[in-house]
Amino acid sequence: MKIKRALLSVSDKTGIEELARGLIEQQVTLIASGGTGRLLTKSGIPSTPVSEITGTGEMLDGRVKTLHPRIHGAILADRRKPHHLAQLKSEGIVPIDLVICNLYPFAQTVKRGQSEGSVSEEEIIEQIDIGGPALLRAAAKNHKSVAVVVNPDKYQQILDEMRSRAGALSDETRTALAAEAFAHTAAYDIAVSQWMSKPGLFPEKIFLGLDRKFELRYGENPHQAGSFYVPREPSWRQLGGKEMSFTNILDFDAAWRLVNEFDRPAVAIIKHTNPCGVAIGKGIEDAYVRALESDERSAFGGIVAANRPVDGFAAKRITEIFTEIVIAPGFTQPGIDILKTKKNMRIILAPSPFSTTLDLKSAAEGFLLQDLDQPRNDSRQDMIVAGSYEPREEDWDDLLFALAVVKHVKSNAVVFANNGQTVGVGGGQMSRVDAVELAARRAGDRAKGSVCATDGFFPMRDGLDTAVEAGARAIIHPGGSVRDSEIIAAADEHRIPMIFTGRRHFLH
Asked: Model's pTM, two decimal places?
């Protein structure tokens, strides 16, 4: 079925002039709406205004342009049905064979309002497209007779196929384009629905409009397939190294969220989403060396996250052992050059902390949705000193450092830290005392004079006793156990300060 007439009505005018010229070369008559028509006229490309087809000018400040039987009848007529064609003929309507349309920049307007704060609710509402989705849905429904294109990236593909098929498009192409059009309108409606939902509330219905960013090397294991989907273009990008796997993305996400807990130069080394070493330092090289000292054996094959640009000195240190991924807000030229000598090492540039605030997991034939346990959401002012011994200022520094790290360790979780450096981490244990014992074993003699943080309260004093026996000088945990008085008495007995945060940090 040769394409003879095309309707062009686009908000994103990328490539539209080149497409229009290519269609005219194929002897296609062009119909254009509003701004699209004005752009074509300015470029010397002939087109028929929509108003000439409908006999009615634009109405209601442009809200009504293409919503007319002479447009939608021309699109919706099924060319396989003679009575449809007869009705068009009796009404003097000529069929439209191709619809090129994309929608008002609603999401971009909302984003601009969020960043600039200068976009009114009325301006956002005016970016809710009505005629565009109607055109797309009509053409996509009738894709056996009409082709529909929403993506400027497909323009050249369409022209090439038309040239090779005497002005026609295959059934397979029409079906694929129709599916893309329905996905486009669905994502658009989701964006509008989310904007209209009251902030801070979980709505009755949740819709995810996600685009596939890329296929993964494999899923959680090599026999599993996987892909990475995004609601918008992500802030990070890969500068080097081989393709990502499912666990690679989970790991660098965990590393990046952890390292952004800190204002001072910091490095986190992650294995299987758990930190094996975290430290702050005078600079990134110093922080990396100190993080590596925490658990050099576990760091082999790990993910390194830095909250400052990685220079040549830090890069040289990082490349001394096998490292899967390095993620940082920047890289000096010497830094990137050294890292790229490891051809398989994935190098991730992440200019800012990730903006995601919700956590979605599949479970029990459904999905769980929650607020993320955001970085830096613990305030010293909200904590209380439990017991008779006050922490010194240097104790507070290490206690808050250990607390920031333990939030990112799988529960049950325990962290020993000293002088802004983890010395022992225990996570994923079935009992808290087991987690304390694991962290203490990894710390060894370095536990002496350290502080200890846990993600949950001590249900019995055995966990606290074990931490003190290992060498802990101070303890921080949520409190809230029915045995809190017993735990406080134990801390006093050991003559150490203990802090109750009042906030649990489980991570399953």
From this structure: 0.77
